[in-house]
From TrEMBL:
One of its GO terms (molecular function) is GTPase activity. SUPFAM superfamilies: P-loop containing nucleoside triphosphate hydrolases. Residues 150-171 are annotated as: Disordered. It comes from the Eukaryota. Pfam families: Ras (PF00071). The keyword Nucleotide-binding applies. This is Ras-related protein Rab-2B. PANTHER family: DRAB11-RELATED. Keywords: GTP-binding, Nucleotide-binding. It comes from Gulo gulo (Wolverine). Gene3D superfamilies: P-loop containing nucleotide triphosphate hydrolases.
Length: 171
């Protein structure tokens, strides 16, 4: 549960592992998603960054056009082993209209912020009327006390994709 503008928001997290063997299952998660976190490893696993275009295409093809997507460069605690420059991540995010930040799952640096910032952007889109909160296919459900339930997915540094979707109650 997080508080955004005085509202209690329940985040439901789905971790899809970003592995090719789970790709068909991953696609089904996008259908009920309000957002996604695409995570790549900034260190020696550059292929996770190189595969972002494919994962982003999947997310956009199988989701609402209003889905919020955040790009996460993980393992920021391993600066000495960096293989993907921060500027590369920022450029990819800018080019594709994504929110960007770097995190460290090991030290928890910016991890909570990644989820909260994604939820804030979803909430902003709800306020703008871009999400129909009465259509659960958008990944959002109004709980019994009129709070918003939104699911949030994450993936570890060796994973590329996660979703934000909703199919549970709130409060």
């Amino acid at each position: 549960m997080v508080n955004i503008d005085g509202k209690q928001i329940k985040l439901q997290i789905w971790d899809t592992a970003g592995q090719e063997s789970f790709r068909s299952i991953t696609r089904s998660y996008y259908r009920g998603a309000a957002g996604a976190l695409l995570v790549y490893d900034i260190t020696s696993r550059r292929e996770t960054f190189n595969h972002l275009t494919s994962w982003l295409e999947d997310a956009r093809q199988h989701s609402s056009s209003n889905m919020v997507i955040m790009l996460i460069g993980n393992k920021s605690d391993l600066e000495s082993r960096r293989d993907v420059k921060r500027e590369e991540g920022e450029a990819f995010a800018r080019e594709h209209g994504l929110i960007f930040m770097e995190t460290s799952a090991k030290t928890a640096c910016n991890v909570e912020e990644a989820f909260i910032n994604t939820a804030k952007e979803i909430y902003r889109k709800i306020q703008q009327g871009l999400f129909d909160v009465h259509n659960e296919a958008n990944g959002i459900k109004i709980g019994p006390q009129q709070c918003i339930s939104t699911s949030v997915g994450t993936s570890t540094s060796q994973r590329n994709s996660s979703e934000i979707g909703s199919n549970s109650g709130c409060c």
